[in-house]
Amino acid sequence: MGARGAETGACCSGRRNVSTRLVFRRPHAANSFPLPRTRPPIPPVVEADLKRHRKPGFFPPWGNDTYRQSASARLPPRGIPLAQRAFWGRSLLSRLVRPDSLRRLMADVATAKRTVPVAFDHVTMRFGSRRVLEDFSCAFPSQRISVILGGSGAGKTTILRLIGGLVQPQAGQIWVAGTQIVGLSERELYEVRRHLGMMFQGGALLNSLTVYENLAFPLREHTRLSEPEIAERVHATLAAVGLKDVDHLLPGELSGGMVKRVALARAILRDPEILLCDEPFSGLDPISVKRIEALLRRINQERGITMIVSSHHIPSTMRMAHHVVLLWDHKAVQGTPHELATSPDPQIADFFNEEVHEEGVREPQHTPIQRW
Fold first, then answer.
1. How many whole angstroms from its chain centre is CA 308?
2. DSSP assignment, residue 253?
C-alpha cells in the first residue's frame, strides 16, 4: 500500500510537473513586423488589436470609431516598432480635437500660406551671437505696398535677403509665391526667384556697362528673346521710368535719383509678381524721393505687383503704404499706417511722430507701363 501510494504519488507529481511546464502560445500574425535577431520575438497580436487596427500598423481613417473600445485601446499595441509608435502618438493627439475641425484648420493654414505672396512663420535669424529676428511671424498682402520700418540693424534688409533665399534662417518657415523656401537647393531657389524682382539699395549696376547693357544683360541670360525684342522691352521700360534718353550713358554719369530709377527699371523688366525694394529713398533729395514714391505707386496700380519696401523714411511710408511692418524688439508689429501712428504704445507711436504733409508734387510726363 505504501509502495503503491508512493508510486501513485510520484506519478501524480510527475503529471503536475509536466502540466506546469506547458506553455500556451498564440500564433503570430502573418503580417507582423519582423525585428532583428538580437531582439526578442514579437508578442502575438491579440484580438483586441485586430479590432482596433485591422492589422498591425494600420490606423483607421478619420471618423472610424471601431478602435475606441476600451481604455486599453488608448495604448499602442505591443510589438509595433518605434516608428509606428510615434505615428500612434500623433493619432492619440488628434483625439483631443474633433477630426473635421482639425482637418479644416490645417487646410485653412496651408491655403493661407500658399495664397499670401510672402509669409514668415516663427522665423529665427542670428548672425553669430547677434540676434536679428526671434520667433518672427508676418504676412504680406497681395498686390499691396508693404513697408518694413525699423531702426538701424533691426533686420529690414535681412528680411528681403531671406525672401530672396540669399541667407537661411536658423528656425522657422518662409513661404514665397506658394513655396516653402527654407532648405531648398540652389536649383529649386532659382525657380522661386523667377517670381521676384529686386531693387538694391545702391542700385548694383555694372559700372563698365551702359544703361542699355545693364538692362539687356538679364534678358539675354534668363530669356530666349531675340535682340530686337530685347531692345524693344529695354527702351519701353526706360521710357516708363522717365529715362528715355539715357540708354547710352554709363552709371557713373547718372545722378543718384537716375541710378535708383535705372535699378527700378531693371527690377520690373521681367514683370515679376513680387518686387523687393531695399531703401529706395536713401541718399535722395526731396524731389527725387517724391518722384520715386510716385513711380512705385504707379507701378503697383498699373501692374498689380506686390511690393515689399524696406525704409526709414516716415513721410513716404505714410503716403504710399497700404501695410506697415514695424520691427520692434526682434519681432513684428503690423497694421495700417494710421493704426500704428495712433498706437497706444508710446514707443511705437514715437516712430511716427514726424509730421507728414501732403505736398502737391506734379508728376513728370511718362509713358504708360506695359506688361510683357
1. 15
2. G
**In whole angstroms, how far apart are CA 10 and each of 15, 18, 19, 271?**
9, 12, 14, 100
- The residue with cell 522665423 is 123
pTM passes above 0.70: no
The residue assigned the cell 516608428 is: 83
125 forms bridges with which residues in the sheet? 133
Write the secondary structure of 227-276 as one string of H (helix), E (strand) and C (coil).
Answer: HHHHHHHHHHHHHHCCCCCCCCCCHHHCCHHHHHHHHHHHHCCCCCCEEE
Contact residues for 34 (Cβ-Cβ < 8 A; gap 6+)? 42
Domain positions in the chain are 140-352
CA–chain centroid gap for 120, Å, is 5
Per-residue pLDDT of 295-327, as tens digits, reads 999 999 988 899 999 988 888 888 899 999 988
Q: What is the DSSP letter of 19?
A: H
List residues bridging with 310 in a β-sheet.
148, 278
Residue 265: all three cell numbers together: 527699371
pLDDT > 50? residue 357: no
Classify domain 140-352 by CATH architecture. Answer: 3-Layer(aba) Sandwich (3.40)
